[in-house]
Amino acid sequence: MTCKSYLPKIAFLTLFLVLSGCKNDDREMEVKTSKIDSLTQELNRQQELKDSLVNLREIDYSANDYSIFFGKEFEDIDNPEEHIVNALKNKEDLIPLKAVLGGSMEFRKVQVISEDWVLAIYDDGHVQGKSIFEYELQEDGEVEFNEIASQLPE
Question: Please, which residues have CB within 8 angstroms of residue 136's CB and are 6 or more apart in sequence?
């Protein structure tokens, strides 16, 4: 047998291998495309979930969707709620949690929840706590606070 008689068989075999390899590449491409589509859908679902959580965080869930009657002692104060909030924010020494890692404790959110109590959330950037304080307006316009309950990290 001469080389010429093997040439068509070798050419056919080479062509067969190339074409069958392309089919495998096409199948592999379909699998990878399907995986990409699946991951894209999951990414979109996670993004929607993140967006909905961000929206929830931005909603102001006030415990007092009703008017608070502050009483006669507050009648000379234009905005009693703001007066109470600012008074507590200026009394950082009432925070029952010590700062860690060089931070400094401060009230982040103070919310008047009734005619007698405020809810305060405080942190130093590392640890956070929550407290309920009872408040009372003094004759000189100062607000006195007493800690009622606290939730501190363990």
Answer: 143, 144
Residue 42 amino acid letter: E
Give, as one character, the DSSP assignment of residue 121: E
Identity of the residue numbered 115? E
Task: Tell me the pTM.
Answer: 0.56
Q: How far apart are CA 6 and CA 4, in angstroms?
A: 5
Count the Cβ atoms, other than its own, within 10 Å of residue 85: 19
Amino acid at 2: T
Residues 1-52 have pLDDT tens digits of: 555 566 666 766 676 666 666 666 678 888 888 888 888 888 888 888 777 7
- Give me the amino acid identity at 34: S
Q: How far is CA 148 from the centre of its chain?
A: 28
- Tell me the C-alpha distance between 90 and 142, whole Å: 11
